[in-house]
Amino acid sequence: MISGNRQLWKEVGWNGLRISVPGVWETDRLGDCYILMENDGFPVLEIKWNQLKGKFSPDKHLKRLKSKYHKQKTNQEIFSWVVPRSWSRILKGYDITGFKWDGKLFSGKGLILFCKDCKRATLLQFYENRYKKNSVSTLIDYPAVLSSFQDHNSKGICLWAVFDIRAELPEQFKLLRHSFKPGSYELVFEAEGYQLAFYRWSPASVILFDNDLRSFARKVFPFESCEGVSESRDCPDSIEFLVLPSLGFWKKWRQRLRKKKIFKWSRLWHISDANRILGIRAESNRPMDIDFLKNICSRYGVV
C-alpha cells in the first residue's frame, strides 16, 4: 500500500477542499471545483464538489452519474456499494453514499459525501487500472487519504496548494480565474474591494540571465505610467511597488463610484534555491492595508 513514510506525501488544496495524497500523484486537470490526479499517465483520483442550496439527495446524484456514463457510451456499469466501516468511522461527520464501477480499462470505488455544516456535496472517485494491477495507482492506502479530507476550514482560511506552489487566503477571497502554463502560473482572486493576483515564474536562472529583478518586475507590472508610484527593496532578492495617486476628495469619490482600482501594490521575490520567482499584485479602489498584504506574502511559497 501507499502508506509507510508520510513524508513522501503532499497536501493538495483547491477552492475550499484539501486532501493529502502520495507524492508520486500529480495534478492533471483543474476546474473551479474539480481536481483530477494521475500517476504514471493514468487517473487515480477524481474529485468534484459543489455548494448545495436545496435538500441533499444521494440517490439523485448517483442517478445523474449513471446517466452521464450512459450518454458517454463508456460501457461502464455503476452500482451501489456498501462502504467499509473503517471508512465510515473516518468520515463520521458526513452523509456517505458508496458506489463502484466496472469498465474495459478502469474500475474503481467512489464516494458521495455531504457535509451538513457547510452544505457541500463532494464526489470522490478512486480509479483502478485493470492492466496495471500491481501498480502504485492500485495499491492505495484509502484510509490515509480519506482521513486527510476536508471540505471547509473552521478558521476561515482557504488553502491553495497545487503543483509546486502553496498559499493561504481568507476564505472570502473568491477565485476569478487561473492559468497554469509552462514557466508561468497565475491565480486571481477578489474580495472586499481587493483584487489579488498570485504569480510564479520559472526557471528564474533563465529569466534573470540578462535581466535583474527590477527590470523583470517592470516588464510584468508596468507601473511607469501610473501616477504616484514608489519603489522599495528590503533585500536584494525582492522588490515592491506602491501606487498612491494624489487625488482630491471629489475625484476619489468619483473613482470609488466607478469602482476603478487606482491603488496598486505588488511584490516580487526570487527564491534562488527553488529557481523560482514569486509575485503578488494587489489592486483596490481604496487605500490598502500593506501589513495585510505582506502577511499574505508570508503565506505564499513553493514546496
CATH architecture of the largest domain: 3-Layer(aba) Sandwich
What is the CATH class designation of the largest domain? Alpha Beta
- Calculate the terminal CA-CA distance, rounded to whole Å: 24 Å
CATH topology of the largest domain: Protein Transport Mog1p, Chain A
Q: What is the overall pLDDT average?
A: 85
Number of helical regions: 7
Residue stretches low in confidence (pLDDT < 50, at least 5 long) are none
Overall shape: elongated
Q: What proportion strand? A: 35-45%
Number of strands: 19
Along the chain, the helix and strand elements come as EEEEEHEHEEEHEEEEEHHEEHEEHE
Q: What structural class should be given to the helix and strand makeup?
A: alpha+beta
Give me the Rg, rounded: 23 Å
Strand order of the largest sheet: 3-4-5-9-8-7-6
How much helical structure, as a percent, in the residues?
10-25%
Please outline the major beta sheet: 7 strands, antiparallel
Count of spatially separate domains: 2
Quick structural summary:
This protein has 303 residues and is of the alpha+beta class. It is built from seven helices and 19 strands. It folds into two domains: 142 residues, 3-Layer(aba) Sandwich (Protein Transport Mog1p, Chain A); 145 residues, Protein Transport Mog1p, Chain A.
Account of the protein in words:
The chain has 303 residues and is an alpha+beta fold. The protein folds into 2 domains: 6-147, Protein Transport Mog1p, Chain A (3-Layer(aba) Sandwich); 158-302, Protein Transport Mog1p, Chain A (3-Layer(aba) Sandwich), CATH 3.40.1000. Helix content is 18%, strand content 45%. It contains 7 helices and 19 strands. It has helices spanning 58-71, 85-90, 142-147, 204-207, 213-220, 249-257, 290-298; strands at residues 9-14, 17-22, 26-31, 34-39, 42-51, 77-81, 94-102, 106-115, 120-129, 157-162, 165-170, 174-181, 184-191, 194-201, 229-232, 238-243, 263-271, 276-284, 300-302. Strands 3-4-5-9-8-7-6 form a 7-stranded antiparallel beta sheet, with helices on one face. Strand 3 (26-31) and strand 4 (34-39) form a beta hairpin. It starts with 8 loop residues before the first strand and ends with a strand. The model has no long low-confidence stretch (mean pLDDT 85).
